[in-house]
Specification:
Helices cover 43% and strands 22% of the residues. By secondary structure, it is an alpha/beta fold. It has two domains: 84 residues, Winged helix-like DNA-binding domain superfamily/Winged helix DNA-binding domain (Arc Repressor Mutant, subunit A, Orthogonal Bundle), CATH 1.10.10.10; 205 residues, D-Maltodextrin-Binding Protein, domain 2, CATH 3.40.190.
Length: 299
């Protein structure tokens, strides 16, 4: 294994000379003597084998080779700083990674807001996000493949916090034959038309949820695909109101005028896979998710 001749410290000195405009200014910024700064750069150029700096009057400027090498060196310095932050974080007992499993019914805007806030305090902690449907959340708990799970069900033996209720609305395109009946719809009306449903992502004990009485049914794996099919007039579906709101306001989708069951609510719970072993980063992310949901409810 080849050991690099140059050091991160030498590249940091070069960066300071360029950033502050000269040897003396860099020495002051780094709290070092000017002679040690000059020596560090001289050794760096010698070990790199190319001229990095050219002196013009009292200012030092990068050569073309210096520009290319320093740009790469800055990336390397940033990586080293992140590595040190991660080491400090791990030293305080903070996890290197948090595994988050979320049911697709959870509003994406709330998820992104919580993750954006977590990014500001993550201290190098990675997020592994998996989106699931129905019993896929349960399986993540049973298989211990998650640290935090947001799902529609609380399995036996687990304690959870209710995050929010998601409203599902039965909708179809304005041109759909069901809307042409111009009356309240019955389950018998629905049976004659194509229903778009979301497949349970779990494999051990998949669940069926909601009305599934249509003799014609297409099953898809994502909310977005289901919504696109409904948009295209291929069928009807129950979809989360937060996903539909803009289309409902624009009139590009219409709620189905059902005599019963036009909408239904599904609770979403936040569950720790192993509460006693949840580290500070896991608990911090869970807290942010709960706060984002509470703030949204207030608004």
């Amino acid at each position: 294994m080849r050991i690099p001749k140059t050091t991160l410290e030498q590249w940091r000195v070069l960066q300071a000379i360029v950033e502050y405009g000269g040897y003396a200014q860099a020495a002051e910024a780094l709290h070092r003597s000017q002679s040690s700064v000059s020596y560090a750069v001289a050794r760096l150029q010698e070990q790199a084998g190319v001229e990095l700096l050219a002196i013009e009057g009292r200012k030092a400027r990068l050569t073309e080779n210096g520009k290319v090498l320093l740009k790469n060196a800055i990336d390397m310095l940033d990586d080293a700083q992140r590595l040190e932050q991660l080491a400090q974080s791990l030293g305080r007992g903070r996890e290197a990674e948090v595994r988050l499993v979320v049911d697709v019914a959870f509003p994406t805007t709330l998820l992104l807001e919580a993750l954006a806030q977590f990014m500001q305090v993550a201290e190098g902690t990675r997020i592994q996000l998996t989106e699931v449907v129905l019993s896929g959340a349960d399986e993540a708990l049973f298989n211990q493949s998650a640290d935090i799970v947001i799902g529609t069900h609380v399995p036996a033996g687990y304690l959870s916090n209710l995050l929010l209720d998601v409203e599902f609305v039965a909708v179809a395109s304005p041109a759909h034959p069901l809307h042409r009946l111009n009356r309240e719809l019955t389950s018998e009306d629905l049976r004659r038309h194509m229903q778009i449903v979301i497949r349970d992502s779990g494999t051990a004990h998949p669940r069926d949820v909601g009305w599934l009485g249509s003799t014609q049914r297409w099953t898809v794996t994502s909310m977005e695909t289901s919504l696109s099919m409904v948009d295209a007039g291929l069928g009807f579906a129950w979809l989360p109101r937060h996903l539909l709101q803009k289309r409902l306001e624009e009139g590009s989708l219409w709620p189905l005028p059902l005599e019963q069951g036009q909408s239904r609510r599904a609770p979403l719970y936040l569950t720790y896979a192993c509460p006693g072993q949840a580290g500070p980063a896991t608990r911090q992310l869970a807290t942010l998710l709960e706060e984002v949901v509470r703030d949204s409810a207030k608004q």
